From TrEMBL, chain A:
Keyword match Mitochondrion: yes
Family: Belongs to the bacterial ribosomal protein bL35 family.
Pfam family, one: Ribosomal_L35p
GO annotation, cellular component aspect: mitochondrion; ribonucleoprotein complex; ribosome
Protein name: Large ribosomal subunit protein bL35m
Keyword Ribonucleoprotein tagged: yes
TrEMBL record, chain B:
UniProt KW Transmembrane helix keyword: no
Keywords, in A-Z order: Ribonucleoprotein, Ribosomal protein
Region (Disordered): 25-55
Pfam families: Ribosomal_L27A
Natural source organism: Hypothenemus hampei
Protein name: Large ribosomal subunit protein uL15m
Keyword Chloroplast: no
Recorded family membership: Belongs to the universal ribosomal protein uL15 family.
Domain (Large ribosomal subunit protein uL15/eL18) ranges: 91-171
A GO term from the CC aspect: ribonucleoprotein complex
Cited HAMAP family: Ribosomal_uL15
Length: 171, 292
């Protein structure tokens, strides 16, 4: 084993030379200092940039912009507000898939069902809430709003916001 | 200097300078991290082995790893079409208005306009959110009994009937956003020291509403309005009180000019709150500009 190592060092002399504790003369030191780069500036950054431009597949695509460039504000996903409508109590409504497709082959009851708008469930509503900005989550006060009756849920005990009317006991 | 010292200094001259690349900690300054061996010692902290969880590549919102995502699955519907152009009127119910009068937050012996309603502190609106003033709603119309000269921005037919039944009058008036900005915070506006602006005419899609006598528009013909008042009383079946015989006749017939924003103050005037004076323009050109 020991003989093997000795033979290896003999056959590859630079292994011994490159060790830090090996004696070196001044001339050799100068050549080493000139060759080594002690600065980070000299690291090859240009080649990295080149690679990312050459390969567009590595660039990520994000739908929600969390911080815009101009104002640092969150931006909404336009596809969401194009397809869904937010009610004031936090529910979202949508159309049914295929509600405009091949209507000639669908019978009356099915066409009636497809005309309706349906509610998203709680998980979906939460997702949609996070995909739009605060402007879309704010209450809108339009006059003659066709969705006016659906913005409040006073008829259901657990969602009613207004106090119950008081009727004094009869004498 | 001796030969050995000179040699040493000479050597030092050629040695590399100290920099971030060649400094290192003192021996023993850093403890090597030990590999845990107990129950959760070498654990992956619930992130699993390989894959999405371990690499923490959180997916973008709504992305379903290749599925047609939920937020793109349904056909488009113009729910929000033209939302940036639509005017919003935050509601105030007749019940709330009655409460404001009963609690002396609004003085019914003077004409009540948007300034009085906002100064009551119980109604909020924001101009930058496309709010254009009060929409008076019919909640509590059966118990409304305040006799007031009211000016709101939107009112429905039962609301108009409830106010006129109580012996009051109502006008619907339009204010452009610049005027509203002055109204929303009056003190702040006067402190700016700029002249009170002219009220602009309503936009094309609102002209019809505000010049209709049935809506008690501020641009409607007064004679038409008195006819409509009578017609509405017939429709809802109440006895219309004659304003001419009312002791508060002078208060009830007060109206703003279509160019006016504040009662008693004309456009072009500057209100100096510090010296408690009102500055009025005298230049002919200005008078012509601010004349309605």
């Amino acid at each position: 084993m020991i003989r093997n190592i000795f033979s290896l060092t003999r056959s590859i002399p630079y292994l011994v030379q490159s060790k830090p504790w090996a004696p070196l003369n001044a001339k050799n030191l100068v050549s080493v200092t000139l060759q080594r780069s002690f600065s980070l500036i000299q690291t090859p950054t240009v080649s990295l940039l080149k690679n990312s431009i050459a390969n567009p597949a590595t660039e990520t695509i994000r739908t929600v912009t969390k911080y815009s460039i101009k104002k640092g504000k969150r931006k909404s996903v336009k596809a969401v507000r194009g397809r869904f409508y937010r009610l004031a109590w936090g529910g979202w409504i949508r159309r049914l898939a295929g509600c405009h497709k091949k209507m000639w082959k669908k019978r009356g009851p099915r066409r009636r069902r497809l005309r309706q708008h349906v509610l998203c469930n709680a998980t979906q509503s939460r997702l949609l809430d996070s995909m739009v900005g605060s402007y879309w989550r704010r209450r809108k006060y339009y006059v003659d709003d066709p969705y006016e009756p659906y913005h409040v849920r006073e008829e259901f005990q657990y969602t009613a916001m207004k106090p119950k009317p008081y009727f004094p006991p009869e004498q | 200097m001796s030969g050995s010292k000179e040699k040493a200094l000479n050597l030092l001259r050629y040695l590399p300078r100290i920099s971030l690349t060649n400094i290192r900690d003192n021996p023993g300054a850093k403890m090597a991290r030990k590999r845990g061996r107990a129950q959760h010692g070498g654990d992956k902290h619930g992130d699993g082995n390989k894959g999405s969880g371990q690499r923490q590549n959180f997916m973008r919102l709504g992305y379903e790893t290749g599925n047609n995502p939920f937020y793109l699955r349904f056909p488009k519907e113009p729910y929000y079409k033209g939302h940036h152009l639509k005017r919003q009127y935050p509601p105030l119910s007749l019940l709330e208005l009655q409460k404001l009068v009963d609690l002396n937050r609004i003085d019914p012996t003077k004409p009540v306009d948007l300034v009085a309603i906002i100064n009551s502190g119980m109604y909020k609106m924001s101009v930058d959110q496309h709010h254009f003033g009060v929409n008076l709603t019919d909640e509590g119309f059966e118990i409304f009994e305040a006799k007031i000269n009211l000016e709101v921005q939107w009112a429905s037919e039962p609301v108009i009937a409830a106010i006129e039944k109580a012996g009051g009058v109502v006008t619907t008036a339009y204010y452009d956003p610049h005027s509203l900005q002055a109204i929303v915070n009056t003190k702040k506006f006067f402190e700016r020291g700029i002249p009170i602006p002219r009220r602009m005419m309503p936009p094309a899609d609102a002209i019809e509403f505000y010049s209709s006598a049935a809506n008690r528009g501020y641009l409607a013909d007064p004679e038409e309005i008195s006819k409509e008042r009578f017609a509405l009383a017939q429709k809802y079946g109440y006895l219309l009180k004659r304003i001419e015989d009312d002791p508060d006749y002078e208060m009830l017939i007060q109206r703003k000019d279509p160019r006016q924003i504040f009662f008693g103050l004309n456009p072009g005037w500057i209100v100096n709150l510090k010296d408690k004076v009102i500055l009025k323009p005298t230049d002919e050109e200005l008078l012509e500009y601010y004349a309605s």
